[in-house]
Amino acid sequence: MKKLVNVTEVEGEGLVALMGQTVTLFCSNYIYTGKLVGVNDNCVLLEAPKIVYETGAFTDKAWKDAQALPNSWYVQISAIESFGILK
């Protein structure tokens, strides 16, 4: 079913609103988590980043298998399918 929807852009929403928090990015191939410290038109920057290979139950306090990356990590915004705060 098609619906007419008015979209209103709100300043400071989305990824920008989560700056400084530990976020989880569900991307086309991987799941990344880390402290969101940068956002621009093309990518986001995570500090203390991890790749999540196995989530376990989303109600668990920790990921079942999350491997730390050696440095800060950039993720292309075009690869992000969804994002938020989980753990």
What does the model show?
With 87 residues, the chain is mainly beta. It is built from no helices and six strands. The chain has strands at 22-27, 31-39, 43-54, 65-68, 73-76, 80-84. Strands 1, 2, 3, 4, 5 and 6 form a six-stranded antiparallel sheet that branches. The mean pLDDT is 93.
Number of H/I helices: 0
Structural class: mainly beta
Q: Segments where pLDDT lies below 50 for 5+ residues?
A: none
The beta-strand count equals: 6
Which word captures the global form? Answer: globular
Give the H and E element order: EEEEEE
Helix content bin = under 10%
The overall pLDDT average reads: 93
Measured by DSSP, the beta-strand proportion falls in over 45%
Can you tag this structure with a few keywords?
87 residues, mainly beta, six-stranded antiparallel sheet
Helix-strand blueprint:
Elements: E1 22-27, E2 31-39, E3 43-54, E4 65-68, E5 73-76, E6 80-84
Antiparallel strand pairs: 1-2, 1-6, 2-3, 3-4, 3-5
